[in-house]
Amino acid sequence: MVSFAWKAFVKNLVKDSSGLAFDDGHPTAYFWVHLLLAVVSFVWGTAIGGIGLRGLRAPRRTP
């Protein structure tokens, strides 16, 4: 669910016309920082979700 929010955020970041993300057509530091935040969050979320899924699928051992 969260990945959809980051996808929408990046799409809106690329289409930004306020001048924060682009200055004369060139990406600004604001753009790069927020793109990095979105990518890192997506990667961490995917990795943690994968770990959780493996934990759910793992057979339970009874002592």
What does this structure look like?
With 63 residues, the protein is mostly helical. The protein is 67% helix and 6% strand. Strands 1-2 form a two-stranded antiparallel sheet. Strand 1 and strand 2 form a beta hairpin. The chain is rod-shaped, with a radius of gyration of 18 Å. The model has no long low-confidence stretch (mean pLDDT 87).
Output mean pLDDT. Answer: 87
**How much strand?**
5-15%
Classify the helix fraction into a percent range.
55-70%
User: What is the rounded distance between the termini?
Assistant: 37 Å
Spatial sequence of strands, sheet with the most strands: 1-2
Number of helices: 2
Low-confidence stretches: none
Question: What key attributes describe this structure?
Answer:
63 residues, mainly alpha, two-stranded antiparallel sheet, 2 helices, 67% helix, 6% strand
